[in-house]
Amino acid sequence: MSEINKSWYKRLRLEVEDVKKFRGPYVNPYIRLAAYILITFLTGCVYWGWNGIQELLYKAGSFADVCAGESDISYIVLGNGQFIDCGLRKSEINNLYTVAFTSHFVFSVVGGVLLDIIGPKIVFLGSQTINLVSWLLIFTLPKNKFALIAGFFLIGLTAESSYVPLLTVSRYFPRNNNFIMTLLGSVRSLSFFVPMILAEIFKTDFFKPESLYKIGLIYVFCGNVVAIMLGGYLLQFKFEHDSMTQKSMELEVREDSEVMSYTSQDLINMLNPENNKKISCFGRLSDSVKAGFKHPQLLEFVLFLISSTLFLTAYGFINKAQREIFVTSDGKSALEVFKYFNILTFIPAPFMGMIIDKIGPAYAIFILQFFGFFFYVLIKIDAYVTKILACFCYIIAGSISISSIYCYLNKRFSPKKFGTLMGIVFVFIGAISLTNIPLYDLAVITLKDKAPFNFNPVEIGLATYMAVAASITSYLAANAKLKQPQHTKTESDSFSV
């Protein structure tokens, strides 16, 4: 019996890298992982728990004045109080989500560049500090439109740069790095619970509408300050040792065709970075762009870019419009169910990580998009039961919505281009997500007289987004079977029959 237990233990145990291969502090990888999990829960992607933030802003009186004289005035109940609502107020509050969502993706490339230049510790600490100031700005000036826009813009701006440095922990688990990334991604989903906790506290009679700043102080000390203390100790200024061995390893990840084209001077410059200062940055950029357009995986990348952009634009709209799309014409609402299901997106994440490791990332992404399509099909039907079923679809569709992009690019493209490709994808997602502002305004302002069916045209359009995205991904999955990634061909040729 003990032998069987040992066998299972070996299978389940993660393979750990020697910590001395990386810079200190030399902490047990499991302890480091546990600390990064705590940081991710406290500060991972808090604004995606938008339901809780909505409730905080409604009670604090954000944009309440815009409802004066409006014909569609209604009231929402929070705790023992009623708070005014109307189409214009919905628009002002929920467009803040799009501001954060767009800056999140558009500026994620900046975080990636800074990570390479100044290292994980400085990027993380700087991002957490900006994050802390942003939350204080929002919580202390909830009735100031410009303070709210600036605050949520900065929240989005630092969303990835405060998280990506934590992904370095996956390097301590070389055979399970995709699993570790999806594990952190699933914990990031749990961080959506944080605004709900804060909202439940704020909804009590103990806190008056004008005392939102007290909630802000509670969060920044329990969240950002704890994250800064842990990350400040554990994260490295530079992750790897600067050694000739490490620099020479950079050659190993380059494609054979590229290495063969190097002159002896090119190789000297690679191993002596100071020589590279003589090379024009513009020239390097120009060469990279030309090489990109000639790359055999260009079509695959463009299709993945389109698919990811359509999927995450449609996915982002759900959080923004949750208070409206989960309500039926007879007044029943599945919103209270959805806000808990929003947190449960962490549950399928490890399973999705296994699918990525076993059969490939395109299959996992197709599953996300397939359930995203059925979410919109079900949510459009004017029945309470279908809106509950849509919640189940959302759990799967949102499980690794961002992590799947990391995993696909990590698996299918050369590691040395990871940051650039990720940046391009995220910039497009952020830019196209801005279209959610006019789409939402179309429903809550232009079509407000057709409520509760005013979201139907938008839901049909976003269901089409999901269908097109899933169709493209199904092609990418089939293509992955036929064509190996360019950067792995040499390795696999050694094993080909």
From TrEMBL:
Statement: the UniProt record of this protein carries the keyword Metal-binding: no
Which GO MF terms does the UniProt record name? Answer: transmembrane transporter activity
Q: Which UniProt keywords apply?
A: Amino-acid transport, Membrane, Transmembrane, Transmembrane helix, Transport
Q: How does it sit in the membrane?
A: Multi-pass membrane protein
State the Gene Ontology BP annotations.
Answer: amino acid transport
Any idea what this protein is called? Answer: Major facilitator superfamily (MFS) profile domain-containing protein
Cellular compartment(s): Membrane
One of the Pfam families matching this protein, by short name? MFS_1
The family classification in the record reads:
Belongs to the SLC43A transporter (TC 2.A.1.44) family.
Gene3D superfamilies named among the record's database cross-references: MFS general substrate transporter like domains
Q: Does the keyword Transmembrane apply?
A: yes
Q: TM segments?
A: 30-50, 96-115, 122-141, 147-167, 179-199, 211-235, 298-318, 363-381, 387-409, 421-440, 460-478
Lineage from the top down? Eukaryota, Sar, Alveolata, Apicomplexa, Aconoidasida
Provide the Gene Ontology terms for cellular component. Answer: membrane
